[in-house]
Specification:
Elements (H helix, E strand, L loop, with lengths): L1 H7 L6 H15 L4 H9 L7 E3 L2 E3 L3 E3 L10 H6 L4 E8 L11 E4 L4 E4 L8 H12 L6 E7 L9 H12 L5 E5 L14 H15 L4 E5 L5 H13 L4 E4 L13 H7 L3 E4 L3 H14 L5 E5 L5 H9 L4 E4 L1 H6 L3 H12 L1
Parallel strand pairs: 3-4, 3-13, 4-7, 7-8, 8-9, 9-10, 10-12, 12-13
Antiparallel strand pairs: 1-2, 5-6, 6-11
Helix pairs in contact: 6-7, 7-8, 8-10, 11-13
Bound molecules: flavin mononucleotide.
Length: 341
């Protein structure tokens, strides 16, 4: 049913508008008594639970950052069967993001290109909504992904991240330092080890007892991935999220003119799958077994999730295939995983 709706209606709508429509449906799914009915149909099996970061995840599969930027869909996404939702990226200051259009479908590739630019209501608004979400009787694990405010100079990034961390860590189940989005000038440069070490140390101290993870780009070379993984362990982080979107445009089915017309931004979805799996393996090779590795990038089916778990992922996240598969995606993944076990 959803594939037909996508082909005939949704794919003709502006992608960002379609996202807002989807958000309405998801929010509705989180309101009682609808949520209880939905949950009966979507809840993961009890044996799909994962214990990690001192938390219990109802499923290994969760929603990657960027889908729920403003903390409005947590309960709905949980009711739909996701074990965790990583909200954000949240910046210390509210900001509108880049001019529209800034989200483009590459349907032939089951991919999208985005240059949203961290559009979000800011850390104070996120904190208010997180407080409300934490009072919910049933909710998924909530990670909070933080990034640099655009107007803050790269040299002052640490102060800006620390400001968000102080406000949001007490309200988060886990916190993520995002230094890997391609749409904030200078952000990915923070991945250089000599810059990243003081940043991670400062945010770790500000995060207190909340587990801290760092999210990395797929465009780092293999040695850089290993170096950051070792740094994350040394700096006392709890884990790594690999990966964010890529600035590469290789091996695409979509015609070059369409790709070109979309312009700059991060590519996500199926074309990212191979590199995301490679980066997961590189990270897992150098970190201790108990260190949490969350894999994201090009995950579409239960087999993809299983492949990531076998390659050493503790948890798996997805975003882009949600747009192509619709609201029952988490249920499909959880059922697919259950069938195999
Ligand atoms: C429209 C869009 C917005 C995104 N926004 C963020 C973001 O704000 N912060 C972040 O860390 N990742 C963001 N991402 C990246 C995703 O969290 C994920 O790492 C990436 O898309 C790879 O997973 P996928 O192939 O399943 O989409 C965004 C992705 C998309 C498609």
């Amino acid at each position: 049913m959803y594939p037909l709706l996508f082909r005939t209606v949704l794919s003709r709508l502006d992608p960002e508008f379609a996202h807002h429509l989807g958000a309405l449906v998801i929010r509705g799914a989180g309101v009682e008594p609808v949520a209880s009915v939905v949950r009966r149909f979507t809840a993961p099996r009890a044996d799909q639970r994962v214990d990690a970061l001192g938390l219990t995840f109802a499923s290994p599969f969760g929603v990657a950052a960027g889908f729920d930027k403003n903390v409005t869909m947590g309960r709905g996404l949980g009711a739909l069967g996701f074990g965790h939702v990583e909200v954000g990226t949240v910046t210390a200051l509210p900001q509108p993001g880049n001019p529209k259009p800034r989200l483009f479908r590459l349907i032939a590739d089951r991919a999208v290109i985005n240059r949203m630019g961290f559009n979000n209501d800011g850390a104070a608004a996120a904190a208010t909504r997180l407080r409300r979400l934490r009072r919910a009787r049933r909710r998924p694990v909530i990670g909070v992904n933080i990034g640099k405010s655009r107007v803050v100079a790269v040299e002052d990034a640490t102060t800006d991240y620390v400001r968000s961390a102080r406000l949001l860590a007490p309200l988060a189940d886990y916190l993520v330092v995002n230094v890997s989005s391609p749409n904030t000038p200078g952000l990915r440069g923070l991945q250089a080890v000599e810059t990243l070490r003081p940043l991670l140390t400062a945010v770790r101290d500000a995060a207190g007892r909340t587990p801290l993870l760092v999210k990395i780009a797929p465009d780092l070379d293999d040695d850089e991935v290993r170096d950051i993984a070792r740094l994350a362990v040394d700096a006392g982080l709890a884990g790594i999220i690999a990966t964010n979107t890529t600035i590469a445009r290789t091996d695409l089915e979509t015609d070059a003119a369409t790709v070109e017309a979309a312009g700059a931004g991060g590519l996500s979805g199926a074309p990212l799958k191979k590199r995301a799996l490679e980066v997961l393996r590189l990270v897992r090779e150098v970190v201790p077994p108990a260190f949490v590795v969350i894999s994201a990038g090009g995950v579409d089916t239960a087999d993809d999730v299983r492949e990531r778990l076998s390659a050493g992922a503790t948890l798996v996240q997805g975003y882009t295939a949600f747009l192509y598969r619709g609201p029952l995606w988490a249920r499909q993944i959880n059922r697919g995983l259950a069938r195999a076990s």
